[in-house]
Amino acid sequence: RVLDRAMEDRERGLGASGLTLADDVRDFLAARSHGDARVALGALEVAASLAGRRRERTLTLALVEESLQQKALLYDKTGEEHYNVVSAFIKSLRASDPDAAVYWLMRMLEAGEDPLFVARRMIVFAAEDVGNADPQALQVAVAAKDAFHFVGLPEGRIPLAQAATYLATAAKSNASYRAMLAATAAVKEHGALPVPLQLRNAPTPLMKGLGYGSGYRYPHDYEGGVVEQACLPDALADARFYEPTDRGAEAEIAERMRRTQAAKRSPAARGRRRDSGTERDVREDDE
């Protein structure tokens, strides 16, 4: 009945197309769709498109079978093969294989996958697997999503392909992702540890009287903009969550962190601040 309505509806269906449906197609689609009207209607739509290109007037069983094969491409958005193809795409990106990445990308798009689903996966990949080794990767992935929104199909596939090849060839680091996991584990293990007094905001005289903000050292008032100061709760004083790699731009970050740590141990960072003419403890905009 769903198929018959689709064939008769002149506004939302195929009623205005002049196409007819062969008798054996109804039972075939009912069996192949397993009762899912979306599958049956999707196959009918593809078959109608094929018929239009070939100037055929009847949706035959052969035409519908071809449409199902073209629609599926061994890819079922709700089945095992869907997850297999998505997994192959992500692992190809991670393996720095742009050829495989763009192939699996097009397998998904040609099978009717939501392009924004693919864009979301690339945004997550850029942050999780590329990270600070190439900080621009996240911008590229987000820009591809925005470009697809603006352009739509079919041209919107181009920025998605560009993003996929960029991510595949970018330097890789999951250090930020691992830092997130380690910090999350610390929060779960230790609970809500108190914020050190020197880091607390003190917008009222009472809070200042309780020591909020007392001893805070404003880094810009010290040589090199670096000062030794405890920023973690006492129970986590020696914790190290972010361990940058030596790959890509993260190598520079690692070196900068080493220089910063060395500067914090210097007499200038431990001593009195320079006379900058400012008096800052905890500023109001540090809330």
Structural features, described:
There is one protein chain. By secondary structure, the protein is mostly helical. The protein has three domains: 2-72, Helicase, Ruva Protein, domain 3; 80-169, Zinc Finger, Delta Prime, domain 3 (Up-down Bundle); 194-286, post-AAA+ oligomerization domain-like. The protein has 13 helices and two strands; from the N terminus they run αβααβαααααααααα. Strands 1-2 form a two-stranded parallel sheet. Helix 6 runs antiparallel to helix 9.
Rg, Å, rounded: 30 Å
Report the major sheet: 2 strands, parallel
Q: Helical proportion? A: 55-70%
Number of strands: 2
SSE string, helix = H, strand = E?
HEHHEHHHHHHHHHH
- Overall mean pLDDT score? 88
The domain tally reads 3
Give the low-confidence spans. 281-285
Q: What is the strand arrangement across the widest sheet?
A: 1-2
Termini gap: 62 Å
The structure class reads mainly alpha
Shape: elongated
Strand content: under 5%
CATH class category name of the largest domain:
Mainly Alpha
Summarize the structure.
The chain has about 290 residues and is mainly α.
